[in-house]
Structure formats: structure tokens, C-alpha cells
UniProtKB/TrEMBL annotation:
Source organism: Metabacillus lacus
Alphabetized InterPro entries for the sequence: DUF2187 (IPR018690)
Pfam families in UniProt: DUF2187 (PF09953)
Record's protein name: DUF2187 domain-containing protein
Length: 60
């Protein structure tokens, strides 16, 4: 399992994407506002994702 770093773009939970803002021991905090359809999805701007539940799309 590769752990994301701050600035990486990750994908999780049926195609949601976000930029990693903070890396914790078991999870990352992700900013979801980079998605084009973010305003249509009625989601919070940030969420927590466990390291087991995402894949890295773009590394920085």
C-alpha cells in the first residue's frame, strides 16, 4: 500500500477525487473542491479517507 503525500490527487469511493491536504497515521484529509461537478454533488469541501480506501491518481 502506497501512502499519498500532501499535494497528491487521489480517487476514492466511486470516482470522487481530491487533493491531499494533510497526511495522518491512518488517513488523509482531502480537499474535494477540485472536482468539476463539486457544487452539484452537495458534499462538504473536505473529508477524511483511510489509507486503505484510495488510489493515487497524480503524484506531486
Amino acid at each position: 500500500m502506497k501512502i499519498a503525500k500532501v499535494g497528491n490527487v487521489i480517487e476514492f469511493k466511486d470516482g470522487l477525487k481530491g487533493i491531499v491536504e494533510k497526511v495522518n497515521e491512518n488517513s488523509v484529509i482531502v480537499d474535494l473542491t477540485i472536482m468539476d461537478d463539486f457544487s452539484d454533488l452537495e458534499l462538504d469541501a473536505r473529508t477524511v479517507v483511510n489509507h486503505k480506501n484510495y488510489r493515487i491518481v497524480t503524484e506531486r
